[in-house]
Amino acid sequence: MRTLYLDCGMGAAGDMLSAALLELLPEPEEFVRSLNALGIPGVAFARERSVKCGITGTHLRVTVHGEEEGHAHAHDHGHDHGNGHDHGHHGHPHEHPHGHEGHHHHSGMEEIGHIVRDHLDLSERVREDVLAVYRLIAQAESRAHGVPVEEIHFHEVGTMDAVADITAFCLLMDRLAPDAVVASPVCTGFGQVRCAHGILPVPAPATAFLLEGIPSYGGHIRGELCTPTGAALLRHFADRFDQMPVMRVERTGYGMGQKDFEAANCVRAMLGETETPSDEVCKLECNVDDMTGEAVAFAMERIFAAGAVEVFTLPAGMKKGRPGILLQALCHEGERQAVLAAIFRHTSTIGVRESRMRRHVLARRVETVETPDGPVRCKISRGCGVERRKLEHEDLAGIARSEGISLAEAAARAGRYLDR
Predict the structure, then answer these.
(1) What per-residue confidence (pLDDT) applies to 22?
(2) Does the pLDDT at position 75 exceed 90?
(3) ∠ CA 300-304-305 to the nearest 5 degrees?
């Protein structure tokens, strides 16, 4: 399985993540030329050599009308963050007073969607990735400010800088096409950060919201190491967060930040081959011939609730020629006792057989597809050169009920928006 591993021991920012992936390409300069040819308004990309703690890597410099985010207009909208990452794109409520409001244009999600959809020559998949990442940022800013997403607006220079970083990373992911993406736990840094709204704790509120459910830690560097753009990119693309898997590494890339610390200020990307993910499971099974179909269905529901990863039945011929079922449940060791108890509690069996087995699974993640009928979750499975997409049945069933249409019609209508 072709796997991308992202080492975020010094945090994550859009420019650093993109620069790390850029080093994995055989012809990075050609890719930078293609980025400049996109025509993101006022934006120019440049690949620069950078050395941190004796390690040579790449800094992807993004300028907007000749100004680099984090330096220009820092008094107006940038965070005074310690790592020199992208951060000036932070949104704020439209009605919030903001210093030089008359001198800088502000963009909302509608304007950003217009830029991405109508001005950039991107494939549908890359376009949707870019917008999905930006929606994550807007939702986090919405929670941080306590206002609807529609009222979140982004500063002009910061907006173009973030669009550039996000678009570059999405294009690089499309070019590299890994089967699975694994990221390390994310180092956020610690302390406080100064922004246009005042002094905030690290990680900043929007970043903290984006990292919910993701393993993260403060580390020993005082300053902001993970930005909202970096957190959103990891949240959208990473299949899981873990230590580096066993892999045969083919290429390694270093994406450098601007500031210098006692530790190398970089994101490291490693591309290589891993075995198909596998784990050991316990199989618990029993035979029953005196339960109704309704009782069996309820038992399966409760066994799932106890922690089983799979529960299924097979027809079985029982003693004296009676028809029955073979009920099987797969679970991990930590849930074994709870699943065993559920089988005894909710079935009529008086004995359960146990065996151990290894299962191989495709890397999976769930994305939400926005449709005119409402959001529909989609399970994406990748690995061994295959990719499968499956729309969530319950979401489709809800649409079918509310719209008075068949399940097949609901699936067909939602399916049209899968690759948008």
Answers:
(1) 96
(2) no
(3) 115
Locate 260 and state its tokens.
Answer: 């210098």
CA distance 231 to 228: 5
- Inform me whether the pLDDT recorded for 84 exceeds 80: no
CA distance 228 to 235: 10
Q: What is the pLDDT of residue 269?
A: 97
CA 59 to chain centre: 23
- H-helix segments, 225-332: 228-237, 293-305
pLDDT confidence of residue 158: 53
Residues 199, 205, 211, 213, CA torsion sign: positive
| Residue 319 in tokens | 């003693």
The model's pLDDT over 110-161, given as tens digits with 9 standing for 90+, comes to: 777 778 888 888 888 898 899 989 889 888 888 887 877 666 666 544 577 8
Q: Which residues neighbour 396 within 8 Å (Cβ) at sequence distance 6 or greater?
A: 376, 407, 410, 411, 414
Q: Return d(Cα 406, Cα 414) in angstroms, integer.
A: 12
- Residues 16, 256: contact at Cβ < 8 Å? yes
Longest C-alpha distance within the chain, in Å?
A: 88
Report, as an integer, the average pLDDT of 367-372.
84
Looking at residue 89, its amino acid is H
Cα distances (angstroms) measured from residue 5 to each of 124, 183, 184, 231: 25, 6, 8, 15
What Å distances lie between residue 416 and 177, 375, 413, 419, CA to CA? 23, 13, 6, 8
